[in-house]
Structure formats: C-alpha cells, structure tokens
Amino acid sequence: MTRPWDEIWPAPEVPSEFALNVLVASAKEPTRKPRRLIWLLAALIPCMLMATGLVSLHAHQSEALKRAAILEAQRKDTEERLRRLQSDFEMANRKEQELAASLANAKDEATRSKLQAELERQKKATAAVGRTIRGSGSGRPTPLRAKNKNCSPGDPFCD
Amino acid sequence: MTAAPVSPTSSIPPRHREIDIALVQSCRLGNPLAIQAFVQHHQQLVFAFLSRLLGSESVVEDLAQEVFVRALRALPRFDILGPARVSTWLLTIASRLALDEKRRAPRKPMSIGLEPRSMADNNGPEAQHHRRELGRALTNAVYTLAHEQREAFILVEIHGLSMEELADITSVPLGTAKARLSRARERLRELLGPLWEELR
Fold it and tell me: Is the ipTM of this complex over 0.85?
C-alpha cells in the first residue's frame, strides 16, 4: 500500500534562511533567563506569604489555647477557694447558733455575759467570712437565684 | 513462543541514529554549524507537521522557530542514548506549542493553498489535476476534525509514526491515542466516501 501524501497534501517550502534565523534566535536566548527568574520570584512570593500566614495562624491558635488553659486553672482555683469559704461560713454559723443556744440556757449572770461577748465576737467573725465570700467572685455578675425562704438572718448566700 | 520486546529505537536505521548522536553532541558544544545542520536536518519534518496541523498560516514559521529554540535550550538534558528519537522529541515540542497556539488563538485552520513543490510530472496534467483535487478534498475534510483527531491522523497516517509514538507525543494513554485515530479515520471515511478508499 503506497501513501503518496506529499504529492496529495504537500508541505510548504522551508524558507532558506530558517536555520540561520533559529541560530540567531537561540543566540539571544540567555536574555530570557531573567524573565524566568521573575516568574520564579512571582511564584515564590505568594508561597512565602501563605507559609507566613499559616505559621502566624498556628502561633495564634496555640496562644489562644494556652490562654484558655490558664483561665480554666484560675476558674478551678476560684471555685476551690469559694468552697472552702462556704465551709468556713457554715462552721462559723453553726458555732454562732450553738453559742446562742448556750446563752439562752445560761443560769448565772457571769456565764451569760461571757457567752454574750463570745457570741458577739462570733457574729463578727461570721459576718467577716460572709463579706469575704461576697468579695471573692471572679468579677462576673452573680447569677440571680430564687430567694430561699429558709434563710437565716445575715446569710450572705440569701440576699 | 514469546516475541522479544522491541525497543522503540530498533526500527531506526543505525546511520540516522549516528547522525543524530553526532549532531546533538556538536550542538551541545555550541557549534553554530552543527546547530544549523541540526535544524536543516529536521526542519522539513517540523514544518510539514505544523503546517498540516494548523494550516498555511504565518504562525507556522514562528512556531517552527520556537520549536527549535526550545529544543536547543533543552538539548543538554535530552538523553541521546535513550529510547526517544530526536524527531519524535521535536514533534512532541511542536505538538505542545501547536496546542498552546490553538488555545491562545482558537480559530478554524485554513485549508492549505500551497502549490506542490515538486509534483511528479510523469503522470500527465490530468493525473496531476486529480491528485490536486484529491488533496483539496482531503485537507478540507481533515480540517473539520477536532484538533486531537487531526493531530493523530497527521502523525500516524502522514508522518508514519507508530501508535506508541503518537501516545508519547500527545502524552495520552495508548488506548486514547488509538481511539482518536480510529475516530478520525471513521469521520474521514464518512466525509470522503469513495475518495477515502482511493487514498488508502
């Protein structure tokens, strides 16, 4: 099977000076190198910007995590302190009630005046613990609570 | 019985390969005469391929020049002892540039209106006229094909490349290359009718 393509579909003549033109064009080639460098830089700069952005985002995120961990530790510490103060307050209150009961049952005047003085001191101590509890909040507004009907007078938790 | 694997270079006449190796080595050294000889040795192939693929536009010469400039730039990296032929490598560059050109300025290629260079005249004016008509019908039909199908047809049917070389040049799997050529043949058969059989 013959395929006389060149006769049926001829290709054009190559210009006689074509090879020389290629030689001249390829001799000019080194001047193209800076253009390649510019392209390289143009590709590198966005990559570097993106990398910097990612690094700073990562740093920001880890900083936020650290800050959250510190706040959490502070919150736990405050809760612990508050629990201790509550326990102190309850103990002081109980002691005050015991003293009041003892005062009511006192027979002689000397014991009565002694217990009275002790009760006054205890009331002051209880009030001091109560003030400490009210002042030891973390700065956040205290959530509103329903009034407790069984509150004892002076109880800082029953405002 | 299993056939021995055939390397892509096995069909190249040894003499051509020697010329290629010697020319490429001299070109790498920057020898201007060797560069000119290298270009002259391959220019007809590149011109023929580009002009058939894109039509007789002025862009063909510029593209052909760009093919050689790029080839000369990349020549130090070309493995002359590897499986690829210089001509196939040049056609690969030409194919990519033609595709870039098509994407850059999409337009319908113009029919080649060239006069045959040295048409065999021993068949008489009637035969010559018939061949010219045949050529015109063929080019008109080829230019209705999609770029990829046209390229497959030109490389395999006209330039005589193998399917593997077509797949290499166009950077597609072998199956895709075969499908493109098959579709191109089918479409040309439809368009050319009895003329197609005459061409075959």
Answer: no
